[in-house]
Amino acid sequence: MIIGALLPLALFIFPLWKITLEAPQYPTPLGMYIHINDFSDVNPHDIKNINIMNHYVGMKYIPEAIPEFKIFPTGIIITTIIGLIIGLKGNYKWFLGWFILMVSLSCAGLYDFYLWEHDYGHDLDPKAIMKFTNPDGSVMGFQPPLFGSKDILNFTAHSYPQLGAYFLGLGMAVSFLAFFVGKKERKTEQ
What we know:
- The chain is of the alpha+beta class and 190 residues long.
- The protein contains 5 helices and 5 strands, in the order αβββαααββα.
- 51% of the residues lie in helices and 16% in strands.
- The two termini are 22 Å apart.
């Protein structure tokens, strides 16, 4: 359990997510990493170029910071401390509780990410230089996928977890496994 509680700390080292935009006019795809407390370029000036390109269709600029960049690091530190206390206490039933807490917080984080993407891709400036409509006449949205790949005009947007997310998932899996190991040991002792 202690190892499972420590693994999410890798989010402070490795990116959580990556969004990439491929298009014929960009031989090297544009991309950005999403860290627990920052955005960063995949290649130099990618975010600047994404912002310039998105401005033409009325999308907001990718901000320097968002409120979640203050909340997520604190949440990871608090849940790690809780996990360590539970691991040191050694009650296997609490291992399941920590796992459920982490799954719940991760789902809330993914939902928040979806809401940001939706707002970013649909709340367009009506005075944008270029306007695109769907076949039914409604304004076209430019929301990248939450997970996977999606064609948007002549771009293909990719959105996938990165190493930080895998460490987070592994930490949760280890705690879940620790619950079953603890439960089995408890039955053997009886």
